[in-house]
Design brief:
Blueprint lengths: L5 H17 L5 H8 L4 H13 L3 E3 L7 E3 L1 H6 L13 E2 L13 E11 L12 E6 H4 L5 E7 L13 E5 L9 E6 L2 E10 L2 E5 L8 E4 L8 E9 L4
Parallel strand pairs: 3-12, 4-6
Antiparallel strand pairs: 1-2, 4-5, 6-7, 7-12, 8-9, 8-12, 9-10, 10-11
């Protein structure tokens, strides 16, 4: 693989940092402003070089579709340490006798997501919940979604639960993700199977959703589930 110039490495590093910090890639204009590249053509030249050398993939139709390849993440020192696919149960209020193990963070609940048939997630804050950051296992941007349906009951995600989702555009095989399919959001385990991507429920009575690999875009992944909250009583 061709080596990167210092400027190309700087661009790749900025893209990866923005994805980790914000949950989505920067636009061409944002790259130019952050790195003092005066023209969008100049930014494009660096992006084309990164793509040609195998460090970056992008969708030319969309403004926020710049994703470092596995080789690109390896060059930057890894993929940020993606967490486990297992969910963790929480209660709304920590027991008074327990001291926080990290620090309390306020998680916005921004809408709903189906664990059955997909339902459009309404991105507006409906509520907030405070959770110890130690339990989430991440200091990246996390949001909450209310679950409807019972297709993920095998993973302990029940109707009415709130899932905590770390914003990111990539997922490992078998992780529980929130995905946008046909403009609607759903929660499933994701499996990459050659010519197709399978979104698998954990309820044996329900069928998986298949997306052709040629139709799949990384922007379909809205995030990885890192926890679940259930209100008791």
């Amino acid at each position: 693989m061709d080596a990167l110039t210092d400027r190309q490495l700087e661009v790749l590093r900025f893209i990866a940092r923005q994805i980790e910090d914000c949950g989505y890639p920067p636009t061409i204009r944002e790259i130019g402003e952050a790195l003092d590249i005066r023209s969008t053509n100049g930014v494009n030249d660096h992006l084309k070089a990164l793509e040609r050398k195998g460090y970056l993939t992008r969708d030319p139709v969309k403004s926020r579709a710049l994703i470092p390849t596995p080789q690109g993440r390896e060059t930057l020192g890894g993929n940020g340490g993606a967490r486990t696919s297992n969910v963790v149960p929480f209660t709304r209020t920590p027991a008074p006798a327990l001291k926080p193990m990290g620090r309390l963070v306020e998680i916005p609940i921004i809408g709903r997501v189906a664990a059955g048939q997909p339902i459009l997630a309404q991105e507006r804050v409906e509520d907030t919940v405070q959770v110890d950051s130690f339990l989430l296992g991440t200091n990246k941007k996390v949001y909450g979604l209310r679950v409807q349906g019972d297709s993920m009951i095998g993973d302990g995600i029940l109707p009415g639960d709130y899932i905590f989702v770390k914003k990111q555009l990539h997922a490992e095989d078998g992780e529980i993700v929130v995905a946008m399919i046909d403009e609607e959001a759903t929660v499933k385990r994701v499996y990459f199977e050659g010519d197709r991507v399978r979104f698998q429920p954990s309820n044996p009575r329900m069928a998986p959703i298949y997306v052709r690999a040629s139709d799949f875009r990384t922007t379909m992944i809205l995030g990885v589930v890192v926890g679940v909250y259930r209100k008791l009583g």
